[in-house]
Amino acid sequence: MLQVSHAAKSFGANRAVDDVSLTIRAGEIVGLVGENGAGKTTLMRIVAGELAADAGTIEFEGRIGFVHQHFMLVNDFTIAENLALATRTSPRNAEAIVASTGIALGNVGRRAGDLSVGEKAKLELIKAIAREPSLLILDEPTSVLTPYESEELFAVMRTLAAKGTAIVFITHKIREVTAVATRVVVMRRGSVVADSPSMSAEEIADAMVERRTGFSRSGRAEARPTSRGEILAIVGVAGNGQRELAEQFLHAYPRSRIGFIPEDRTHDGIVAEMSIAENIALTRENWRGAIRRVPALIDLYSIKAQSAKQPAGSLSGGNQQKVILARELDGEPERIVASEPTRGLDLESTRFVRDQLREAAARGAHVILITSDLDEAFELADGIQVIYRGVLSDRMTPAVASERVAKLMAGLQ
Amino acid sequence: MKRIAYGIAAAAISIALLAAIGALFGHRDLFPILIGGSVGSPFALEGTLLKSVPLLLTGLAVVIAFRAGVWNIGGEGQFIAGSLAAFLAARYGIAAALIASILAGALWASIASLLRIWRNAPEVLTTILLNFVAIHLLGYCVNGPLQEPSRMYPQTDAAAVALPLLGTSDLHAGIVLALVAAFASWWLMYRTKEGLRLRAIGYNPNAARTAGVNVNAQIARALAFSGAAAGLAGGIELLGVTHRLFERFAAGYGYSGIAVALLAQLHPLATIASAVFFGALVTGAGELQRAANISSAVATFGQAIVILVLIMFGSMRARD
Amino acid sequence: MIELALIASVPLLLAVEGELVAERAGMINLGIEGMMLFASMTAVYAAQLTGGIAGGIAGSIAGGIAGAALIALVFGAFAIHLRADQIVTGTAINLLALGITGFVYRELNETFTRAVPHIESNAIAIFAWIAVPIVLAWALWSTPFGLRLRACGENPEAVRAANFSVEGHRWAALAIEAVLVGIAGADLALALSSGFAENMTNGRGYIALSIVIFGRWKVKGVLLGTALFGAAAALQFAMQAANHGIQFHLFLAIPYVVTLVILCGIAGRVRAPEGLGK
Lengths: 413, 320, 278
What we know:
The complex is a heterotrimer of chains A (413), B (320) and C (278). Chain A folds into 2 domains: 2-208, P-loop containing nucleotide triphosphate hydrolases (Rossmann fold), CATH 3.40.50.300; 230-409, P-loop containing nucleotide triphosphate hydrolases (Rossmann fold). Chain A is 37% helix and 21% strand. By secondary structure, chain A is α/β, with parallel strands linked by helices. In chain A, 45% of the residues are buried. Chain A has 15 helices and 15 strands. Chain A has a 6-stranded mixed sheet, sandwiched between helices. Chain B is mainly α. Chain B has a single domain (2-319), classed as ABC transporter involved in vitamin B12 uptake, BtuC (Orthogonal Bundle), CATH 1.10.3470. Chain B contains 13 helices and no strands. The longest helix of chain B has 28 residues, at 215-242. Chain B starts with a helix and ends with a helix. Helix content of chain C is 76%, strand content 0%. In chain C, helix 11 packs parallel to helix 14. Chain C is globular and about 60 Å long. Chains B and C meet through helix 5, helix 6, helix 11 and helix 13 of B and helix 5, helix 11, helix 13 and helix 14 of C.
């Protein structure tokens, strides 16, 4: 049984975890929900001992297994060697270990770097389960799984819970919570705002955000005037060739004629050490002109910053994404490629980004939206294609796609 | 402001450590001789300034390269290449000689950028290896085709031209050139699009590439600029100070440039002050060797201490 | 000729083997040049101190290892503990070693200019060419320790997630490197030369770094690389002996040109340990 009492953790001025108390019992499947930045991962990292809390106590007996959002595999090692490292056994025991968890992974002599994303996720899960933890924490486990693989995961979770393991799975996807959780804990801005064994999807959604907005999944609210622009969404589970596809688009057109929003804004988007102004000027031929325009852009895109000379790395994720948008969309390019543009953003920034893409399409731009978030795709797209192992499906209307997308994402059909 | 404080502290600590080690070995007069030999007299000051010139330029070379994220440890070889070219072109006049030195330095550095772009060969190693090649090339020249006519010493004749002197001292016009180079580097890095992109690839080459910067071309240009500065250092040292080439001509100026650049926190204008500090250190160390038989290698030791202290400060800062 | 090549490249080979371990653990030690230089000096000093005990071998090797260990301590303090940039640290270490050895050489000049015991190189050669590769290959690829060490060089995050100390394993790798480089220094100064001379390592450290890349961070590969290099070096000596002209100076450049070619031919298609330098 896990007992968290008045845990608190701040990063500078940001109260990531604000006086949280929580009890988790054996056999429970707790869905820990909240929008990005609500404090879910931070709280669980404190529970797992990876972070030290500023205040409060954690009481727990037994072993904790933590499956992180990002893979922690040694790509050059085989599956067996990765397991050996994690479980402190010999690589020879790997097959037996895999068998004992009930998850199918195939030949353990394969190099981890060559596995598909779904297989890597399974390997991470096996690593955690093999150590027979009393508490298993899964951080956004389905972000890289097809709908089918997600179902497989839920089945494994139910089996483990039946054996007495306590499970916490962190997610921002409400549908998953209602599918498998025995208890729902909602976090918002570092606090627990709801904790109940049964909540409806609407109740959860309302608890996640501050105002009652109602959760619309049917897409655009108002009819669009006819225009030449459109949004084509390319959906798929991460790791199926989206990066390569985006690169192809990037190089297919002159850089000044395309607005490109990269998948990983810290790695490929923002130069953290340079100022906001310098980041915006980086793509422009007339860089002095660009710098003069920056204050206007900061206004236009509601970028929360003290000055244009501030290092871009000091901004929040949402504001960094706005800087990229400002840079890429300001010239009103005819083509826009946006990869996972709202990943990791809070709700307000997410809305902003989606509105910007809609407006760009309304202005006549051809927008290609590469995303693994089906809700986002259906909300924005005029047409949908599915990418699987580097191959694109036919283009479908959203209506047709809603029936076929799950199968296409899994490579069936 | 903090960074200036760190710089001064690092410089002070290295001198203090030198004095302490000297005392350990029984040389209590290390510190006074060091100071006196570097800034204690007009003659010493002159020596310091003369030594600062090549250090300023090799320091700028490192600043430009490191700012672009390129490991140019080849200042030594580029310095030699520049001096050789200057010597050969000297018959055509000062301007020709200096331009030749700039081009030769850029070319020598470009061998490394070519190998990196074409073959992924890490420039940190190729530039160092090219240093050794250049040193032996110089050895060949001064013992062979370029040796002075009497064939008694491994050195060349005096170069065909010399840099004009400033006033009655030994200070030569190269000082002005070096200062101009410092300002030009600053202007390049902070007031041009080229400099913006150069710094961008230094901080985050992936983001720069996404933004449309041709990273390989940028790296090549950065190395060329870097080599040019080091080559110019060699040309100026030849035409302004030594007037002839000999073995060990480079005398560590290339490697010292690294310490100069790091103490200046990779800022082109601060490199001026940093070069003067290390110029003083080298000049003082020379006096130490003459007056007290203490190896002038203490200057190299001092450079290392400065770098290590700066690293320490840097990681303390990162922990905040 | 072959024997000459093998024996003459022993210091280089030991440095290569040490750097292989370090890089497999994720560290690039540019300062290996300075480490070997400093070890050469301490080996000679220790040999003079211990007089002729056991032919000077024990003393010199112990001294060499002690010197290399000191340098490894400094490098580790900055690169592991302070997480400083490894290339800048390594460069500083080389300057440090140059400065210290230059200074001490002049201070204790008579220690370094009188006759030193000559140590037998054959035993060390067998050690370097046969014993070390076998032990290293076994240790790195067939033991749990080796698995963890290699994981540190590929993905330190994964190692930490499995609750092991990345720092501990990297220190261990540096210790192994120090032992090997210490012996290399002793061999260089007392088996291949007759004492310490300023700058006597002459770039061997950088050549070692290049050979590790050429050998794709594997034992067989680096052995082959060192052997090839040794052969080229032996050829160079032969050419120098046969031709006494001024081309001598150009011949001196051959090892470095050969190394450049080595870096060209292979580096493009090679995959380094993912966590190298991080």
